[in-house]
UniProtKB/TrEMBL annotation:
PANTHER family linked to this entry: AMINOTRANSFERASE (PTHR43094), AMINOTRANSFERASE CLASS-III (PTHR43094:SF1)
Keywords: Aminotransferase, Pyridoxal phosphate, Transferase
Protein name from the UniProt record: Adenosylmethionine-8-amino-7-oxononanoate aminotransferase
PROSITE patterns xref list: AA_TRANSFER_CLASS_3
SUPFAM superfamilies given in the database record: PLP-dependent transferases (SSF53383)
Amino acid sequence: MERTYLIKPALDEEYPIVSYGKGVYLYDLDGKQYLDASSGAVTANIGHGVEEIIEAMKEQSEKISFVYRSQFSSEPAEKLAEKIALSTPGDLNWSFFVNSGSEATETAMKVAIQYWQEKGFPLKSKILSRWVSYHGITLGALSMSGHPGRRSRFVPLLADFPNVSPPYCYRCPFNQTPESCKYECAQELDTALSRIGPESVAAFIAEPIVGAAGGCITPPKGYYKKVKEICETHNVLFIADEVMTGFGRTGTMLASEHWGIIPDIVCLGKGMGAGYAPIAATVVSEKVMEPIMSGSKQIMSGHTLSANPQSAAVALAVMEYLENNNLFADVDSKGIYLKNLIEKLRVQYPFIGDIRGKGLLLGLEFVEDRETKQSFSKEFNVTSRLVKIAQSLGLLVYPASAGLDGTSGDAIIIAPPLTITKREIEELVRLLESSMVQLKQELVKQGVK
Ligand code: PMP
């Protein structure tokens, strides 16, 4: 392997060099085509090479690319904040722009703590979160993340925020079935709050659908209503980390809308710039802003490139594109079509244990034994093998962790651009099946039945 100077995810592997992208396809320098079935890391929500976005970028860069936020605001940043306020439910009216999902969750944490300080409760500074979750890689965000694999190296530096079990119905931590479920996992939040003492807790943070840490774990129907009630009872804010689920990924602006709840703070990222620019946001409700506005009148967070006009212009153009092409409207039916086609693969590929998710955010969990739900032993490396086989066949899927301990299971995420057509969905499933054929052959050779 030729030596390079770029630190890539795996330093002992070679990566194809991308040449260009169009729609749901990417092409490398050798001209090989890849169907982007994961929108990268659930980011390229409107596909690649969209002319309208390129135009908006050109137009903005001819005006101004950078101003510093304490010196100027900009038209695209003002318009974007207004559009987000109008597109989100309830009183989620205030946006603070950052550059990544990790910064958005880290800012949400700080805003929640500040809210209670301004209201005269300086001790309310802990954030509770769930195991099997991912909220970002910076130390505050990682403190909230219940992702053992990503935490392990830094444990001494992290706060012990994950305290609650995930709503992981396929592997219910309370051994319940959908019929016997009494939302024990939500109830656990109540117990944790009583034990830790709500007077020391500022907020509870959760991903509406658990992405990278759990392969699209989707809660039972009444779960979030219960969680929100428990937060309100204990005077604790509810932060929805919609970095992966926001911007129409599940057919609505926020996935929280499916469960009829309005969070106090929302984190957005990924699909917000759709990969055309780094931009993310912490969206804050009037309720939370009110004591801050009548108190210190500023949020103690920010970055040099916060509310960058170039990135804001991109996110605004992405929102307009989603609207003009009515892209949220078909997400549900496209997702059902895709899910049904994948369901058919179950018959021949018994290692498909669970298919879950919502809209165009689907997760597949793989098991060695479907009856017992026994995961594959780690030596089989099922997730990374499948991801590599798929890529070699021209299909991009996203690797996820799974299992109640957050490390023992195998899962992938399938989340193509919302613009995907029916024909492209069929092609995606054909390529997925070819990948499964190869995986099955390899596993059989290794003695797996
Ligand atoms: N929250 C969630 C739910 C995410 O999925 C991610 C990224 N996978 C993050 C936060 C962190 O975002 P970023 O990688 O942009 O920092």
